[in-house]
TrEMBL record:
GO terms for molecular function: DNA-binding transcription factor activity; RNA binding. Keywords: Cytoplasm, RNA-binding, Transcription, Transcription antitermination, Transcription regulation, Transcription termination. Transmembrane segments: none annotated. CDD domains: KH-II_NusA_rpt1, KH-II_NusA_rpt2. Participates in both transcription termination and antitermination. Pfam families: KH_NusA_1st, KH_NusA_2nd, NusA_N. This is Transcription termination/antitermination protein NusA. It comes from the Bacteria. GO terms for cellular component: cytosol. Residues 234-307, 308-413 form the K Homology domain. The gene is nusA. Belongs to the NusA family. It comes from Aureibacter tunicatorum. GO terms for biological process: DNA-templated transcription termination; transcription antitermination.
């Protein structure tokens, strides 16, 4: 293989991989320098001249002419006068000899190895460029095309045909895609696995919801409204705390839009995820009250260590505070960074009702605590639910719940 064929084939390959010309020249020079070091042990007195456009390659070796009896004659950058005269009869001591080295001088095997090395360097560079490109774009929303649906992930491609991954754990449970469909997600993280870059997307990340709001609400994009915090149960419910830096702007109204015009497109993208937009405030009690909306709170008590909050409500408001599947109370706790316990207000109890603490001699304290955590703090509030519903809300065993119901029923017999 001559130099022009080698360089032309490499240049064509590099072009397909979108490698720019200066980088391509640098790779060529590095590989040929490596070839020189393998053959001559040194490369500091060699010049490599590459013209990738024409497929030209020139390798020049420079040596200083010394007397045949000189002690320096064995230095790699020196040549004896007699050897120099074989190249050009007019050479004299002290002059520099420039001798061209042909590619064929390196041997066929070395040239073939160089070709493989060139291709591998481009592939490695391509991987590094992909890694750096997406590393800088983490947190950005991207629209891709689905190419393969696997049990653990969905493989998609970007506009440059790079393969990206949406793992099962980062998919909304209601997500259903087919090959060829568009898929919108946020760039979650980029990893190097066994030397290969892996770009991981997410549709469950709070950042994805934040970017959707930025795209739909100009006031957020312009910085007039800021998102203080987002908590999500992907595909089910989310709470978004917002604050306005302009008193004339209602942050909640701006995010929802006229007749819900702005938030509807976000809800559709998230498979009908119920989104509560909350006006942020430094007033802790008011913030908790907004976080537990639509429930109406009677009073709030904060523990001495400030880690738990006890919220007291009228009996008909407890289920609203807990929400379907317990999502409302869980998200409110995460929004506040505090555990929130919901209780019926003792002043609102019916005369015949009995608080669960009265059964502490028959029901273990930890069981009573588990029931209280989901707002079941009186006998009648527990009896109002079915066995299956109590098991679902509390994760208590069927046998345990059956025994609790038996004890509580006896109280009213």
């Amino acid at each position: 293989m001559d130099s022009s064929t080698l360089i032309e084939s490499f240049a064509e390959f590099a072009k397909k991989k979108n490698i720019d010309r200066p980088t391509m020249i640098r790779i060529l020079e590095d590989v040929f320098k490596t070839m020189i070091r393998k053959k001559y042990n040194y490369d500091d007195n060699f010049d490599v001249i590459v013209n990738a456009d024409k497929g030209d390659l020139e390798i020049w070796r420079f040596r200083e002419i010394v007397d045949d009896n000189s002690e320096d004659i064995w230095d790699h950058d020196k040549i004896s006068l007699s050897d120099a005269k074989k190249i050009e009869p007019d050479f004299e001591i002290g002059e520099e000899v420039a001798e061209e080295v042909k590619l064929i001088d390196f041997g066929r095997r070395t040239v073939m190895t160089a070709r493989q090395t060139l291709m591998q360097k481009v592939k490695d560079l391509e991987k590094d460029l992909l890694f750096q490109k997406y590393k800088e774009r983490v947190g950005e929303v991207i629209v891709t095309e689905v190419v393969q649906i696997l049990s653990r992930e969905i493989i998609v491609v970007d506009t440059d045909n790079n393969e990206l991954s949406l793992p099962k754990s980062e998919q909304i449970s209601k997500d259903r895609y087919r090959k060829g469909e568009s898929l919108k997600a946020v760039i979650h993280k980029v990893e190097m696995i066994n030397g290969n870059p892996k770009v991981i997307l997410s549709r469950t990340s709070p950042v994805f919801l934040e970017r959707l709001f930025e795209a739909e609400v100009p006031e957020i994009f312009d910085g007039l409204i800021t998102i203080k915090k987002i908590v999500r149960e992907p595909g089910e419910r989310a709470k978004v705390a917002v604050e306005s830096y302009d008193e004339r702007i209602d942050p909640v109204g701006a995010c929802v839009g006229m007749k819900g015009s702005r938030i509807h497109s976000i809800v559709r993208e998230l498979r009908n995820e119920n989104i509560d937009v909350i006006n942020f405030t430094d007033n802790k009690e008011l913030y908790i009250s907004r976080a537990l909306s639509p429930a109406k709170i009677v009073r709030i008590e904060v523990s001495e260590d400030n880690e738990r909050v006890s919220v007291f409500l009228k009996p008909d408001q407890v289920s609203l505070a807990i929400g379907k599947g317990g999502y409302n109370i869980r998200l409110a706790s995460r929004l506040m960074d505090q555990e929130i316990d919901v209780y019926r207000d003792i002043d609102e109890l019916e005369d015949e009702d009995v608080v669960l603490d009265e059964f502490s001699d028959e029901i273990d304290a930890w069981i009573i605590h588990e029931l209280k955590k989901v707002g079941l703090d009186t006998a009648k509030s527990v009896l109002a639910l079915s066995l299956d519903e109590i098991v679902r809300r509390t994760d208590l065993e069927d046998e345990t719940v059956s025994e609790i119901l038996r004890i509580l029923n006896q109280e009213f017999e």
